[in-house]
Design brief:
By secondary structure, the protein is an all-alpha fold. Helix content is 54%, strand content 0%. The longest helix is centred in the first third of the chain and has 27 residues, at 27-53.
Length: 182
């Protein structure tokens, strides 16, 4: 009788459901078998997910929100003061937030950490006009980045759960004030 060649791909399809383990396997062997089966299913699902979502556009990621290397406060160098008074005030406020801590919901918390406006206020040293100018530049910098929906510096500060974005905005506002010669 002639021997027909058998193609494994057509004659022996892969099972789509796991084969029930024989009763003589130990608990450990059965768990290993189930683990192997589930790992294969999860790998297939991961590939299917990537294929099915490859066409979805994604927004670019700002690496400053992801990559952070915090320095201990004692290693933070003091800022080189700008000749512009508002820029110098914002630089000092930024440094104070870096070294003294940032808080939300209050000008100063029980540990001495300050919000954005609290840092500006303490560094203005009683000069209300300079404080108002610095807060206005900071609000302008925030609105440039986040749109005109931001009502005020305190509302922006309190909308964040970490110091990363508020600190970055105070630093950007210092650069903006310096560029404007304020």
């Amino acid at each position: 009788m002639p021997h027909a060649s058998l193609s494994p791909a057509t004659d022996h399809p892969a099972p789509t459901t796991p084969v029930a383990p024989p009763a003589e396997l130990t608990l450990e062997e059965r768990l290993t078998l189930v683990n192997t089966t589930m790992t294969a299913r999860l790998d297939e699902a991961a590939v299917a997910h990537e294929v099915n979502t490859a066409h979805i556009p994604t927004a670019p990621v700002d690496l400053a929100d992801i990559v952070t290397i915090p320095l201990p406060p004692t290693l933070q160098p003091p800022p080189q003061p700008s000749p512009a008074p508002v820029a110098a005030l914002l630089q000092r406020a930024h440094h104070r937030l870096l070294t003294g801590g940032w808080c939300s919901g209050a000008l100063v918390d029980e540990d001495g950490a300050r919000c954005m406006l609290g840092a500006i206020r303490i560094e203005a040293r009683g000069d209300d006009g300079l404080e108002a100018d610095a807060a206005a530049v900071l609000l302008d910098a925030i609105r440039r980045k986040f749109g005109d929906d931001v009502d005020s510096v305190p509302s922006f500060n309190d909308a964040h759960g970490s110091a990363r974005t508020p600190l970055r905005m105070v630093g950007q506002a210092a650069g903006l004030a310096d560029a404007r010669g304020l």
